[in-house]
Structure formats: structure tokens, C-alpha cells
Amino acid sequence: LACIGGFGLGVYAEHFDNAFWKFSGLLVIGMGVLWWLAGWWVSLPIKKLADQSERLSRTGLASALRHLPVGRRDEIGRIAKSLHTMGVIATRSHMEARSLRSTLDQRVVRATKRATSELKRLVMRDPLTDLGNRRFLNENLELLFDSAKASGTDLVCVMIDLDHFKKVNDQLGHEAGDHLLIFLAG
Asked: What is the pLDDT of residues 51-79, one digit of tens each?
């Protein structure tokens, strides 16, 4: 093809000597103008679109979405609209994920506090009567003394010994014994 083109130009130059150089000059200028227009109309918008897409992927900022050429009615505009839509969806998903993570963290904290509180209660109290046990007394005795002293009231400790309680369990059953203990604790 290059040979045929060269041959054609040679024949044209031979036949139209002076006009050939004028035509060639106009052709070069015209090609330069077309090259510049192609760069301005096609290459520059593609470069800008690529730069904005890279900025969006690098920073993740929604502000990069504002600079996409979504108003164009050509392929670049269609690509820009698609990138804009994907960016909006990604931003929305990121915000929803952050909100869900925060909600989950709050729920974990509340559940942990409740479980810790319940475990502490179980460790400090008798499961049947809900009365404080020896560990409860060890941890709260000083506080109870200080409170009674500060308020000028007496501190009373009650201890009940049930004689022959084993007979209640043996003759009436453990459920009856449990009811008796709950009644006395109340």
C-alpha cells in the first residue's frame, strides 16, 4: 500500500508540479488540524475520564464523581455515567456497611455488658433463693459496714439453720425442699 501510495504521489507530482506542493502543504495542515481536533475531542476527554476514574478508585471520595463528564451524549458520556452510577452505589454500600458495623459493635457491647452482669449475679447469689452468698458477703461487707455507720443504723445479719432439712427432701422430695427454702428466703 505504501508503494502504491508513493507511486500515486509521484505521478501526481509529475503531472501537476506546482499544484502538488500547494496540495501537499494544505494536506499536511489539514491533517494537523484534524489531529489536534481528534486530540481535543476524543483523546483529551478519554484522558480526563481515566484520570478521574483513577482518582475515584484511589481516594474513594464521592467528590471525584462530580467531575465526570456525564453530560456528554457520546460513548465517553455513557462510560462516565456508568462510572458515576458505580461510584454512587459503592459510596452508598460503604456507608451502609459502616452503619451496620457500628450497630453490630453497639449490640456486642450491650450483650457483653448484660452477660457480664448476669454472670456476676450468678456468681454472687444463690441460684435458688437469690440470696447473697459468701462471695457476695466478702465483696460487700465493708460497703455494708460503711453504709450503716454513715446512716447511723444498725447492721443486722440473720442466719437460719434448718434442723433435719434432709428429712424434708427425703420424705417430701427435693421440689418440696426447694419450695421451703424459697419461702424462708422470702
From this structure: 777 777 776 666 667 767 777 788 777 88
Give 177's contacts (C-beta < 8 A, 6+ positions apart). 165, 168, 169
Residue 26 is predicted with a pLDDT of 65
Backbone angles phi, psi at 70, to 5 degrees: -75, -10
Count other C-beta atoms under 10 Å from residue 64's C-beta: 20
Q: What is the pLDDT of residues 139-176, one digit of tens each?
A: 989 998 999 999 999 988 888 888 888 998 899 999 99
**132 has which bridge partners?**
125
133-145 burial string, b = 16+ CB within 10 Å, else e?
eeebeeeeeeeee
C-alpha to C-alpha distance for 134 and 131, rounded to whole angstroms: 10
How many whole angstroms separate alpha carbon 74 and alpha carbon 42?
Answer: 10
pTM metric for this prediction = 0.46
Residue 80: how many other CB atoms lie within 10 Å: 23
DSSP string computed for 60-95: --GGGGGGS-TT--SHHHHHHHHHHHHHHHHHHHHH
* Interatomic CA distance for residues 13 and 7, integer angstroms: 10
